[in-house]
Amino acid sequence: xxxxxxxxxxxxxxxxGWLQSSHTFSFAGYYNPDRIHxxxxxxxxxxxxxxxxxxxAHPHDNMEIVSIPLSxxxxxxxxxxxxxxxxxxxxxxxxxxxxIEHSEFNASKTDPVKFLQIWLFPKKRDIAPxxxxxxxxxxxxxxxxxxxxxxxxxxxxxxINQDAWFSLGNFxxxxxxNYTPKKAGNGLYLFVISGxxxxxxxxxxxxxxxxxxDYSQLDVVTSEDAxxxxxDLPMLA
Length: 237
Description:
single chain, 7-stranded antiparallel beta sheet, 54% strand, globular, 2 domains, 7-stranded mixed beta sheet
């Protein structure tokens, strides 16, 4: 098993006043040749947007984009005609495909919104752009993993154009579980949203992460209440 630790304070950081963003991987003005991507995972941004502010209309193509609000709500518009509010406990996925333009604004004029913005390289290029969104009950991830994103054709989670699975879990102190890859050869990226855990024998705190490849099982133990995001994804060259 090969593991790489990404500490919260090792991420790139940008403070634009209205936006504060921590970049796990090279993005915009942050460049680290050792942090370009992990397999299919290209971007993991930890964003806080002030009330009434947001990202104006901008284009994407051939990227799978997942947004997970941690608190507050996002207002989304795109060139497919979608106009949606994405709340805490919602997950949004957008397949940019041949090209799509969208905007994301804080749905509140006063309160900040905190969310994870995640990009994956697609399995198939140049598909028709599409959008999906779903609310996931937090009770269904108490002391267990809840699948929120899965490959097209799966029976659970939002469909993604990639052999990838995203799972959320809220675990009490002292809980443990073993994670095995959903597909042979896939790697795992475990991101600690809050709390502290031991994963693969490494102690991780809030916003720390462990990247795992060439593994058959990862053992995770919570040393205090913890919220986790696990991304099971192909290891691309």
